[in-house]
Each structure stands twice: as C-alpha cells, then as structure tokens.
Write a structure and sequence with these properties.
Blueprint: H1 2-26, E1 30-33, E2 39-45, E3 50-54, E4 59-66, E5 72-77, E6 80-84, E7 87-90, E8 96-106, E9 109-120, H2 131-156, H3 160-169, H4 175-187, H5 192-219, H6 224-235, H7 238-252, H8 258-285, H9 292-316, H10 321-331, H11 337-346, H12 350-375
Parallel strand pairs: 3-9
Antiparallel strand pairs: 1-2, 2-4, 4-7, 5-6, 5-8, 8-9
Helix pairs in contact: 1-8, 2-3, 2-5, 2-9, 3-5, 3-11, 4-5, 4-10, 5-6, 5-7, 5-10, 8-12, 9-10, 9-12, 10-12, 11-12
Length: 378
C-alpha cells in the first residue's frame, strides 16, 4: 500500500509539473528571423494551453505577428479549416471538447499553437427543468440503491459502508465520458439538453447519497446527536464539500480570477488521467477474478436493474419519448470511475469495484444497443 501511494503521488507530481511547464512555456512568444536582418515576433493569446467555455459563448483568440506584413495565419478546429487572419472568434456549438489550432507562416519559417477547449452546458440557455425527468432518473437510482444494499446484506453479509459502496456501484454511471457522446450519436443533438440536466445534479446527488449512507451506518444513532454527527461528516467530506462549493459558485454567476481559473483548468485536465492511473494500479493489486461474485452482482444492477427502474418510472410519469430514451440510455451506461474513488474514500470494496468498472464497460458494448432497441431509440 505504501508503494501504491508513492507511485500515485509520483504520477500526480509528474502530471502537475508537466502542466506547470506547459503554462510557463505558453506564456512566452515565438521569435523567427525575418527578412532584411530584422526579426519576426509572434505572440499568442490566450497564453494558457487550455480553457473552459459555455455552449453558445464566444472567445477571441489571437496570433499577432510583428516584424513583417507577409504573414499567413490559418485557424482550424478539430482539424477542419475555421478561418484566417490574426484574430479568430471561437463559438462552440455543443458540449464536449474542441481543439483550436493556429499555424503561422512568416519570413520563410513556420510556427503554431493549439488550445484544448472544454465546452460545458450553459444552464441559462437550457430549457426549464422538467421535474418528472429528474424524478424518473434519480428515483430509479434510489430504488436500485435500496435494492443493492439489501442484496449486499442478504447475499454477501457486508457491513454498512461496504453495502453503500456496493449499491452505488449499481447506479453511478459513466455519464460524462460515455453518456454524452453515445447520446449524441444515437439520439442526436436534441438529447443533449436532457443529458446536461442530469449531469448537473448527478455527482452532487449520488456523492451525497453514498456519503450519508456510509456515515449513518458508521454513526448508527437515531437521535439528534446522531443526525448532527452524520451531517457534519457529510458536509466536511472533501469531495462533497468541493461539489457544494463549486455548485454554489456556479449558480452565483461569479467569475473566477484568471490565475485561479487557469490553475483549476490544469488540475481538472489531470483529474481524469490520474483517476485512470489509480484504477489501473488498483486492478494490478486486485485480480478481476477476486470477489467475482460481488463484481458480477454490481454489473447486473448497473446494466440491468437501473435501466429497468428508470424506464418503469419514466413510463409511470408519462415522459415524452426523447426524454425517456435519453435518461434510460444514461442509466444503461457502465459503472463510472467515481465509484472507485468512493471505494478508496470509504475503504470498502476497491477490488470488486475496480473489476466491475472494467467488466461493465466491456459488457455495455453489447447491452446498450439492446436497451436502445427495446425502448425504441437509435
């Protein structure tokens, strides 16, 4: 475990150093020899190699050439030509990531720069929240969570913390990395607002749910003091506290200082790779064949029970076809990497959770098309 921790710490440090080096390097300018003994200086703006935008927003990017008037500046977005000239205004049309690049040819030499743009939904432009949609999705999550805790106790005799992690493995889907692209391909752009509504609340609701469940299982007192201890432990949990703080800041509409925004962008870019590294190291420590029954049960809950529960509630609430298809598709996604972080956070079932994440992702390639066919999507 000490070696595991040292490796993870080393990986985190290396990624952070690379990110800082990239930021420092990006702050400079390119200088190329120009004709007639002069120099051509090229500066790029913004200096940060990555930034975040909202769908429908706009941001100006510049490639300023000093020392010649013969420069050729070409802009591309995801490899496709997007414009020419020293100024380009990027207006993202959909949630996801865009790679904006510029190539400059001046005085017989070439230079370039690229930016990774993370595009997030603009809550002010989304349609009004359909409470029935959220009730169907998160109501299905609660049903399956309760079923998961019951199965964990009856079949595997787990304690309260392990029951909670086991159960959340059956409801926390990979909605961001897989849910958005799959919904876009199968249901079209019209489904993205529905998916975005779920994504806005998904981490907050499910992290709160599992944290309350674990802390209540550990406190175990049906009294005011017991409730107070549970609430304190939930609010002071680093993950829950950061989600609450970020949500409050976002709803307040306050801008982040430039330095803080760039720093958080760099840390955010490192989060997913580091979580995957941690998952891989976990799989190296725990064989997929270890506790395979628990892993198989989590996969059945996630790929079978949750889509069924969400679909049943959607039909009961008479949701429109598109909303029904979108939330059932999200429910059919495999186990999300957040569940492994939960297992580590609460010290319960890291091996079975890591295995279920890999196995459910492989199985989802076959089960997701079946789910879509049964509900009439795709």
């Amino acid at each position: 475990m000490k070696t595991h921790a040292r490796l993870l710490s080393g990986c985190a440090g290396a990624v952070l150093l690379v990110a800082v080096a990239a930021l420092v390097g990006a702050c400079g300018s390119s200088t190329d020899p120009g004709g007639g003994g002069g120099e051509v200086e090229i500066t790029y703006s913004p200096t940060a190699p990555a930034f975040t935008m909202l769908v429908g927003g706009s941001r100006e990017l510049r490639a300023t050439v000093v020392g010649t008037d013969q420069a050729v500046v070409a802009w591309t977005v995801d490899g496709e030509a997007a414009g020419s000239g020293p100024v380009y205004v990027h207006v993202p049309a959909e949630v996801g990531t865009d790679t904006v690049a510029v190539a400059v040819t001046a005085a017989g030499s070439s230079s370039g720069r690229q930016w990774l743009v993370t595009v997030e939904p603009d809550l002010s432009r989304l349609p009004p929240v359909d409470a029935r949609l959220l009730i169907a999705y998160f109501g299905g999550c609660l049903v399956v969570f309760a079923l998961g805790r019951l199965l964990a106790f009856q079949l595997f005799r787990m304690d309260g913390a392990a029951q909670s992690v086991f159960a959340v493995g059956g409801i926390f889907a990979n909605t961001l990395l897989l849910g958005i692209p799959v919904a876009k391909v199968t249901l079209g752009d019209a489904a993205i607002p529905v998916v975005s509504l779920v994504l806005v609340l998904n981490s907050l609701v499910l992290w709160m749910l599992v944290t309350v469940s674990v802390e209540w299982a550990r406190t175990g007192r049906a009294s005011f003091a017991g409730f107070a201890d549970t609430a304190k432990n939930v609010v002071t949990n680093p993950v829950v506290a950061s989600i609450l703080a970020g949500t409050a800041w976002g709803w307040a509409g306050l801008p982040l200082p430039g330095v803080a925004d760039r720093t958080l962008d760099l840390l955010g870019q490192a989060a997913v790779p580091l979580s995957l590294i941690a998952l891989g190291m976990g799989l190296g420590e725990f064989s997929v064949r270890d506790a395979w029954r628990e892993s198989a049960a989590i996969c059945v809950l996630k790929l079978g029970a949750q889509p069924l529960a969400v679909f049943a509630l959607a039909r009961l609430l008479d949701l429109p076809p598109l909303e029904t298809q979108a939330i059932v598709l999200l429910a059919a996604m495999p186990v999300g990497a957040n569940v492994y972080l939960m297992a580590r956070e609460f010290g319960a079932l890291p091996g079975p959770v890591a295995a279920s994440l890999v196995v459910s992702t492989a199985l989802a390639a076959f089960t997701t098309p079946v789910v879509l066919m049964l509900i009439g999507g795709g």
